[in-house]
Amino acid sequence: MQSDQLKLHHFFELPEQIDKIKKNNRLFLPLDETWYRLFREGKKHWELRGINDIFNIKTIREGRTVELRRGYKSDPLWGLITDRLVVHSFKEIPSTIFDETIPPTVRNDPNVMAFVKNYKDKYNKFILFKIRIVEEG
Predict the structure, then answer these.
(1) Is residue 114 part of a domain?
(2) 85, 115, 109: which is closest to 8 by C-alpha?
(3) Which regions of the chain does DSSP assign to beta strands (E)?
(4) Domain range for residue 108?
(5) CA 86 – CA 25 distance, rounded (Å)
(6) What share of the chain is helix, strand, coil (3-state, %, to 5)?
């Protein structure tokens, strides 16, 4: 296990005071229609991003508020990061997390799989983060 990879056995409950979203320090996450719908329907819980200036171990941290939007349109979903995992390849992603990142229901869509393949080839290190959708307020 890499030193910057979190051990998955440390899952925890977020303290009650973290249940409120904090819009002033939110991570903005624009999504296309497919990924946004899967989060909204509760079929997707983990997000995958290539490590870069915006998505890295300093910016993706437990308890941080996430604003998920369908592109840059309205109807935001609000959530909290509850866990994260850093990997060097998709092969390192545990199957249960992979299924909650790219659900089996969309894997037959050739457009989705072409997007995933291109994304996988674009980066050499990835950060995954689990998002718990919460009510705004």
Answers:
(1) yes
(2) 85
(3) 27-31, 46-50, 65-70, 77-87, 126-134
(4) 24-134
(5) 22
(6) 30, 25, 40
| Residue 113 belongs to a domain | yes
Structurally, the chain folds into a number of domains equal to 1
Contact (CB, 8 A) for 88 and 2: yes
Q: Which residue's entry shows tokens 């993706």?
A: 60
CB atoms within 10 A of CB 77: 18
- C-alpha 24/C-alpha 33 separation (Å) is 25
Judge whether 9 lies within some domain. Answer: no
Helix (H) or strand (E) holding 110: helix 110-122
In CATH, what number is assigned to the domain containing residue 110?
2.30.130.30
pTM, full prediction: 0.82
In a domain, 2, yes or no: no
Nearest C-alpha neighbor of 77 from the set 34, 32, 135, 128: 135
**Could you report the per-residue pLDDT of 55-79, keeping only the tens digit for each?**
999 999 999 999 999 987 778 999 9
